[in-house]
Structures are given as structure tokens and as C-alpha cells.
Amino acid sequence: MRAVVQRVKEAKVEIDGEVVGKIGAGLLVLVGVGKDDTEKDVEYVTEKVLGLRIFEDDLGKMNLSIKDVGGEILAVSQFTLYGDCRKGRRPSFDGVAPPDVAERLYGLFVEEIRKRGVKVETGRFRTIMDVHIINSGPVTILLDSKKTF
Fold first, then answer.
1. Half-sphere exposure of 11 (CA within 13 A, CB side)
2. Which residues, 6+ apart, have CB-to-CB distance to 111 below 8 Å?
3. Given a cut of 90, is residue 149 above it in pLDDT?
4. pLDDT tens for residues 107-136?
5. What does the pLDDT average to over 42-61?
6. What pLDDT does 135 receive?
7. Which terminus of the chain has fewer Cβ atoms in its 10 Å neighbourhood, N or C?
8. pLDDT tens digit string along 68-112?
9. Which of 46, 79, 109, 122 is the catalytic position?
């Protein structure tokens, strides 16, 4: 499972001009599910997202997590995180999970965040979305459950 985590002042998702998810200060998390991903990958990414200390403390150091600051999360599925551009100019998406698996694991990710007491809004799976953000910092972190050490 891959995630692009961006610290934001605000973020929203629109579909055909309708706002379907909106948050204030917190994190935008773009989530991609790979074909070999399982619940274990969901758990890893969930814990990382909630534990990332990328918000500033009173001394201006990135030392606080989303839970510490009472922030919100906007989780948006994005299969293109698995686009492989090593050959040619058109990305290959052979590493992407089938839609039914991806939707289930993405939904589990969202549910796990909610269970841990963080407000989460979402986009809509398998839909063309417009994502609007004000990135704070900018701070952008890449997570990949398969690249653990």
C-alpha cells in the first residue's frame, strides 16, 4: 500500500462541482492499493499516518502527530500511485490491485482511522475527482508498506 501524505491548512474533494469531502487543518492522504496488499499493509500505513510527527510544537519543531493537534484527514483513493514509468512514456498499472480488493482495503484504511478517533472525510472510489488543497509547509511524505526495513 502506498500513501502520499500532505500536511494541509484545508482540503476538499469535488465531483462534478459537488463537494463530497472537506476538512480543515490536517492531512490529505492519497492512498494506492497494490495487487499484493493485505490487511497487514493497511495496518502499517494506518499506524504510520496517525503517528507521523509532522506538525509543529510550541518551539516550531515538527514534533506532533495528527492526534496531538486534533486535526482531520481527507483520504482519497488514487490507483495511479502504482503507475510504473520505467519503460516507455505511458505508465503501466500492472501493480494495481483489482478494483474490488482495492476498494475493500481502502475502506478498511478509512475505518481504521475512524476507530482511532480521528475525523476522516473521503472522496468517492472509482470516480474522477477534483482535489483542492492548501499544502502547509509544504510538507509531503511518501509511505510504502512494502519498503519497510
1. 27
2. none
3. no
4. 999 999 999 999 999 999 999 999 999 999
5. 97
6. 96
7. C
8. 999 999 999 999 999 999 999 999 999 999 999 999 999 999 999
9. 79
Please, are residues 115 and 108 in contact by the beta-carbon 8 Å criterion? no
**Is 80 an active-site residue?**
yes
The three-state (H, E, C) secondary structure of the chain, written as one string: CEEEEEEEEEEEEEECCEEEEEECCEEEEEEECECCCCHHHHHHHHHHHHHCCCEECCCCCEEECHHHHCCEEEEEECHHHHCECCCCCCCECCCECCHHHHHHHHHHHHHHHHHCCCCEEECCCCCCCEEEEEEEEEEEEEEECCCCC
In one letter, which amino acid is 87?
K
Domains of the chain in sequence order: 2-144 (3.50.80.10)
Q: Does residue 79 have an active-site annotation?
A: yes
Residue of 6, 78, 109, 122 marked catalytic:
78
Q: Which three cell numbers stand for residue 46?
A: 494506518
Instruction: Please name every residue paired with 96 in a beta bridge, in sequence order, or none if there are none.
Output: 34
Cell reading at 36: 499484493
